[in-house]
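For the sake of transparency, this paper describes our internal protein records without simplification. Because each token names a local backbone shape, the row as a whole describes the fold. One such record is reproduced below, unchanged from the form in which we store it:
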Amino acid sequence: MKWLIEGKEYSYDGKLTVKDARFIHEKSGVGAGRLNHELFIEGHPNVIAAWIFLLKRQAGEAVRWEDIDRIDITDFRPLPDQVDEPTENEPEEATIAPDPTSTPGKTRKRATSNT
């Protein structure tokens, strides 16, 4: 998953270490069980700050906690996963042809009654 922070993309591999969970809890008071809710639904500013700090640190940036306060979060968001389109060598999904033995628009009667 990728995140957008001030116009720059940051990757997140989906793993949350105990160290990172402790850091988020220390900075925001939010535990791992409520992390998604507080980040995506509530937009808890301390959770957002801790998350941005972790993403930047994982990207190898030299970041200090004080630097996070100056980040513009108006465009902070997860980016949709990229869907790979088939290449020329990769066959596209086959379309299922209609059954040639069926009559379009007609349905078969049930063999048993509903009573």
About this structure: Helices lie at 18-28, 35-42, 45-58, 65-68. The mean pLDDT is 83. Residues 10 and 55 are 6 Å apart (CA to CA). DSSP finds four helices and three strands in the chain.
